[in-house]
Amino acid sequence: MIDGTDAGSAHRELGLTDAEYSLICEKMGREPNGVELAMFSLLWSEHCAYKHSRKLLRQLPTEGPRVVMGPGENAGAVDIGNGHSIAFKVESHNHPSAVEPFQGAATGVGGILRDVIALGARPIAMLDSLRFGEPDTERTRYLVDGVVRGIGHYGNSMGIPTVGGEIYFEPPYEQNPLVNAMCVGIARTEEMVRAAAAGAGNRVVLFGSLTGRDGIGGASVLASAELDEGDDAKRPTVQIGDPFEESKLLECCQELLADGLLVSLQDLGAAGLTSSAGEMASAGETGIDIDVGLVPLREADMEPFEIMVSESQERMLAVVEPTKVEAVLALCDKWQTASAVIGEVTDNGIFRILKHGATVGEIAVHDLVDGCPLYDLDPEEPVEWIYPNRQTLPNDTDPSEILLSLLAAPSIASKRWAYDQYDSIVGSRTAHRAGATDAAVLNIPESGRAIAVAIDGNGRRVACDPRQGAIEATLECAANLACVGAEPLGVTNCLNFGNPEKPTVAWQLGEAIAGLAAACRALDAPVVGGNVSLYNETPSGPIYPTPVIGMVGELPDAETAGGRPWENEDSIAIIGPFNPSLAGSELEKQRGELGRGLPEVAIDPARKAIELVREAVRAGRVRTATDISDGGIAATLSELAVASGVGVQAELGPFITRVECSAEDALFGEGPGGFILAGSPAELEQLGGRGVPVELIGRVGGGLIEITADDLSVRILVDEARAAHDSLAARIESDQPGLTH
Amino acid sequence: MSVNWGVLQFPGSCDERDALNACLLATGGHGSARLVWHEETDLSGLDAIVVPGGFSYGDYLRAGAIAGLSPVMGAVADFAADGGPVLGICNGFQVLCEAELLPGALLDNTGTRFICRQGDLVVGDAESPFLTGLTAGETVSVPFKHQSGRFFAPPELLAEIEANRQVAFRYAPGQNPNGSLGDIAGVTNEAGNVLGLMPHPEHAVESFTGSTDGLALFRGVAGAIAGSPA
Questions:
Q1: pTM for the complete prediction?
Q2: Which chain B residues touch A156 with a CB distance below 8 Å?
């Protein structure tokens, strides 16, 4: 662990290689002292330097007419007109949540909120993408419960609505859950602030919580290494969240910005003062002096290195003109948040650490922030399926039983148990809440329009084929937006993978980023920011490669957003180039038959279908629109029947004839490009003839779900489907271990 | 009719802007609404007060306990004693109970978890300026959203509340989300001018949210003020 002394032999324990240490000595012209080494070890960690992923990320499209801020800022932002922008970003807090689920998830929410606050935006929505092991183990139930409570505790207390998200349950996440949180904020475009420090002589003000010993080394010890046995000992590296402090910080920042008192603003996240001050100076091409003797501390006897790398939550760093310092400190007092001038912007390019005026560390900003070597990976395509399979459903199961088993699958079942614990409406913008439609819809009176937000990523399918799986995840996000009538404006992503130094993981990472880049280009959806989370593995192996895609779109009106439940007598159509296959499906998982490979995705036909659905929803020509996702056509129809309380009769014969799939594929197969629409038959038929396949397959009515596919058929009561779909809460709450929160 | 609303703001409040929005919508462009900082003690010029939802002072001691002792609450007590209408929503209800402007207490939900869902309330037979637009027995749809919303009062006090017709709202049959005694969702003081409720009428004032039933409470005050002698 970091001890701040004996720098010569400590670098390996701090996660630096011998070569990296030599490079540091070479750049400095001497050996770093303990303070300097601690700072290097964190900023040169994977979490801060992206040293194994940065070269790959250059493939992603990042520019477009609506982009206001792209990668490199605290969060990305897109223009929504009328002088306003939407800022958004997704970030991981996986390892802290594995070690301490409640605080890990809570501080994950707090951290991503501060990224958006730092841009000068007011957060208006949160979404979460979560991955756990199967809920039949006590550990998983403990993690799920703690993570959901932690997210609720922080977001609810802050008054930021959690409007959507997704939860998947797969064995490879059992020891290493994924907790990805996405924040969306709104700002007046001209009032947005950048993170760059500017103006030699300007003061550096730290405000918010006191600096303590929590989270020391979090970015290197937790975030940039694999999890190991006995990781409970890492609990001290998990920060403790205080949403009350952050709530005051949010309002304080809003007032500081409204009064025009700040030159720049940055949150303190991983690596604390080291990264925030260092990155501010780097972006502004300035130097910076920080006197640790001026930092308000929680514990009096902290060492300089501890102060510089502490990851105490709820802190912000601002650059302020000397004449405005007094006003800034007064506003901090009003919001009962600690504040102090702790340093100054300089013009010498040096990051100098002082203690009561005496220099205790001195590093060239460029060496620290941009000097970390970027590595090429050594990818190798695995020859076989590298994840365990286990069978939970006999191969000869009756189709109706298969359907019930799919609806009850934890990944497909209703997540209402979790969503009910989140405040989804505070802020008075939420038109469609979590779980109600494919994408959340928020009213934006500032622009006179509305936005839709979705987050998606099916790791199992990416494991089968990283390139196709990443394309599918991106298309699914856009499809979800289309179902409420929204058009993509921008993308954020969180790339959760195993150890990139291992060839198969390196291959997964490269393939997935290539797929993501191709899909974003085809959709004209620039990637404006994101996060890479590597080393997600334990002695039992890596997680499924899991790129999580967050997408923000725009629609004309929250009031007329699509996604309403279907009604009696509606006709139903399948729309789009959907070509179902059991490869990578939930059914294949339950049969224990998962293997490598997915059918190749035709991106352009899928994009055409997305556009057609979006236009139909906007024009009010269909009542119901949803994309065909996990569990295939049968599960998707059943979910609509449960949501609206009305059954359905469908005949898939003509569809099977056209796409030439098997009856089982038609019922339960998965894949991109397909939508179920409901409405009047005349309107649905008129959608045909534009190069997008359209098939009327049935009618809504009664209390039964009856679907025939050649020689197979399913026939279950809507109430049976509902019972299966609502079964998750009982599974998670059964036999809960002792809870401390 | 013109109403000048004051919406209290404590550190940690989070529904205050929603309440402000509801006040302005209800007055339809006549009148005003402003935030009242927790350290203010002068409420002159205000016609009605809303104590909004949120987590005042983080609720780290007990929901509403610190806010109940804040400087502004002394002024609110005087305002209420003079007959001024005061509406407490969620944390605001907790604050008004802690400040002893309303009877009873709000305990943790029996399920111990935070709950957030749309639900139905049945209007009680209490008399209050906030209820002038509603009829006893009528059902309104508003969001339920809280962690400590279980209304509790000792048996004698509960009997008194019922006998004095101080129950303003009950959860619709089968929808009690938190174990509240008598399905009670909201109560008034004896005079009726102070009303507290756990569910959130301020989140049900615009049609895109699915319900505008909450507007009636805010409009009710405008009507009551118009009808009262100047």
A1: 0.94
A2: 55, 114, 116, 147
